[in-house]
């Protein structure tokens, strides 16, 4: 496999980001980490968190989901904003900055050269903020993931494994403390600890994508249940599809907030 170096910038421009990168291609910024999370997490913070997570195993209910590799090389905490107040604060600030309605934070800790969680793709847009150590990333583009696999991920199909398939020439990025990497949704990616092997800490701030199905299907069904042509018994023979379509349009406009023509 040959790689291409991901171009980088030393300033974060929100308008430029949305215009050129959002859900299209990855981006790398050097030294802008404090704009996402300040002060940064240090090893004493991680050690204190690990002690709390050990206690939480005995008393579950923190809201965070924890995965550990048995050899101790990988700790991954999904929804870490529920267990680290500084991440909850950062999520609130990023929600305002990006105009999102929510933001979540995942924490990745590795100890050992080459340690990582494997190549995969997400149905979220992610900003990886390097905190300690270094990490090497290989990244593809959203179109490198087949549409059918994108569909399965968005629908959270039972049993589906979102393993990623990198292109022949993925983009390569080396992250050091303070660097930020943007990973578009559906883009395959893999991050592993750098060659120094001294341990790596990174936080991924994410916006989870929503489909029209997940956003509107239940409200639409509720609205249709109030439309007589949809709840009354169907006549024998062919139904009046024109009346059904008119009622469906009314219900859809009601749940999406689109005004009537």
Q: What does this 3D model show about the protein?
A:
Helices cover 31% and strands 23% of the residues. The protein has 261 residues and is of the alpha+beta class. It folds into two domains: 4-209, Jelly Rolls, CATH 2.60.120.650; 213-256, no CATH class. Strand 2 (8-9), helix 1 (14-20) and strand 3 form a beta-alpha-beta unit. Helix 6 (212-224) packs across helix 8 (241-256). It is elongated and about 75 Å long. The mean pLDDT is 93.
Helix fraction by DSSP (H/I, runs of at least 4): 25-40%
Strand neighbour order, sheet with most strands = 2-3-10-7-12-6-5-4
Biggest sheet character = 8 strands, mixed
| Alpha carbon gap, first and last residue | 54 Å
What is the domain tally? Answer: 2
Task: Give the number of DSSP strands.
Answer: 12
CATH topology annotation of the largest domain: Jelly Rolls
CATH architecture of the largest domain: Sandwich
Strand percent estimate:
15-25%
Derived from helix and strand composition plus strand pairing, the structural class reads: alpha+beta
Question: SSE string, helix = H, strand = E?
Answer: EEHEHHEEHEEEHEEEEHHH
């Amino acid at each position: 496999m040959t790689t291409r170096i991901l171009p980088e910038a030393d300033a974060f421009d929100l308008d430029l980001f949305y215009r050129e990168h959002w859900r299209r291609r990855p981006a790398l910024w050097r030294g802008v980490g404090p704009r996402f999370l300040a002060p940064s997490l240090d090893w004493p913070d991680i050690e204190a968190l690990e002690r709390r997570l050990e206690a939480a195993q005995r008393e579950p209910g923190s809201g965070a989901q924890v995965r550990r590799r048995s050899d101790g090389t990988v700790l991954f905490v999904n929804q870490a904003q529920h267990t680290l107040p500084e991440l909850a604060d950062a999520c609130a600030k990023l929600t305002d900055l990006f105009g999102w309605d929510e933001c979540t934070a995942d924490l990745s800790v590795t100890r050992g050269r080459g340690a990582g969680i494997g190549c995969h793709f997400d149905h979220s847009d992610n900003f990886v903020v390097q905190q300690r150590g270094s990490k090497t990333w290989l990244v593809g583009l959203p179109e490198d993931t087949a549409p059918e696999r994108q569909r399965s991920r968005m629908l959270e199909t039972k049993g589906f494994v979102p393993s990623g398939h990198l292109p022949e020439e993925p983009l390569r990025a080396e992250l050091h403390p303070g660097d930020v990497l943007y990973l578009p949704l559906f883009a395959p990616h893999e991050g592993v600890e750098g060659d120094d092997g001294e341990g790596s800490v990174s936080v991924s701030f994410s916006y989870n994508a929503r489909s029209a199905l997940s956003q509107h299907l239940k409200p639409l069904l509720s609205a249709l249940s109030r439309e007589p042509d949809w709840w009354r018994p169907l006549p024998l023979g062919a139904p009046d599809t024109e009346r059904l379509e008119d009622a469906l349009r009314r219900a859809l406009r009601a749940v999406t907030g689109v005004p009537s023509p």
